[in-house]
From TrEMBL:
<dbReference type="InterPro" id="IPR039887">
    <property type="entry name" value="IQCF"/>
</dbReference>
<dbReference type="GO" id="GO:0005516">
    <property type="term" value="F:calmodulin binding"/>
</dbReference>
<dbReference type="Pfam" id="PF00612">
    <property type="entry name" value="IQ"/>
</dbReference>
<protein>
    <submittedName>
        <fullName>IQ motif containing F6</fullName>
    </submittedName>
</protein>
<dbReference type="InterPro" id="IPR000048">
    <property type="entry name" value="IQ_motif_EF-hand-BS"/>
</dbReference>
């Protein structure tokens, strides 16, 4: 063992066998040295514990961030999956309404044409919000 290490081992033994009243078995200079050594050891352990605690906090924070990112990703993916189906359903519903309106108009038109026995010519367009009709009636 080196001389420095032997003194530290001896200092620790002396500190551990110190009297309960706080008096030192050796002279005042050695007591000061022992106190400084004890303070260094305590501060080193405090530093080690703080480093460990900070690394644990950083790890926990990173895990929370990853979890939040995964949840956000899942929600966004669900929205991306659902939106096209909703839009398709809305477009289909709008088309079916326009189709039903066209069928009703055609039925009334055919009935009226059969009643008047005239020649009816025309065309219509079904648009998203309204129905355009151009009718030309020729009576014979």
């Amino acid at each position: 063992m080196s001389g420095f290490l032997k003194t530290k081992v001896m200092d620790i033994r002396v500190v551990s066998t110190a009297l309960p009243e706080g008096t030192c078995q050796v002279d005042n200079e050695q007591c000061v040295t022992l106190e400084k050594t004890a303070i260094k050891i305590q501060s080193w352990w405090a530093w080690v514990i703080q480093c460990w605690w900070r690394s644990l906090q950083n790890k926990t924070l990173e895990q929370r961030r990853c979890l939040a990112l995964k949840l956000y990703k899942c929600r966004e993916w669900a929205v991306v999956k659902v939106q096209p189906h909703i839009r398709m359903w809305q477009a289909r519903r709008q088309f079916l309404r326009a189709h039903q309106a066209a069928c009703i108009i055609q039925a009334h038109w055919r009935w009226d044409a059969s009643q008047t026995r005239g020649l009816i010519q025309g065309h219509y367009e079904v648009k998203a919000s309204r129905l355009e009709l151009n009718i030309e009636i020729i009576m014979t």
